[in-house]
Amino acid sequence: MEKPNITSFKTTYAYHLSGAVVRLEWEAINNLFIVLKIGKKIKFLRKKNAADVFLYSNAKAKLYA
């Protein structure tokens, strides 16, 4: 099995507001699942390349394959 690789990670909106829904999109290859970490919350996603998340405050989003 080859090493997982995230080729792109972006948002569809130019501006983010606290208390609003944000759509995150990514492309990954050779992965079984994706771990999306926003602040202290962790989500495990499988066979998806986008997620809608509700942001309560400014937080960094990290993506792991």
Short recap of the structure:
The chain has 65 residues and is an all-beta fold. It has strands spanning 5-11, 20-29, 34-38, 41-45, 50-55, 61-64.
Account of the protein in words:
The chain has 65 residues and is mainly beta. The protein is built from no helices and six strands. A three-stranded antiparallel sheet has the order 1-2-5, with no helix packed on it. The model has no long low-confidence stretch (mean pLDDT 86).
Low-confidence stretches: none
What would you report as the Rg, rounded to the nearest angstrom? 12 Å
The residue fraction in helices comes out at under 10%
Q: In sequence order, what are the helices and strands, one letter per element?
A: EEEEEE
| Distance between the amino and carboxyl termini | 13 Å
Topology:
Blueprint: E1 5-11, E2 20-29, E3 34-38, E4 41-45, E5 50-55, E6 61-64
Antiparallel strand pairs: 1-2, 2-5, 3-4, 3-6
Keywords:
3-stranded antiparallel beta sheet; elongated; mainly beta; 65 residues
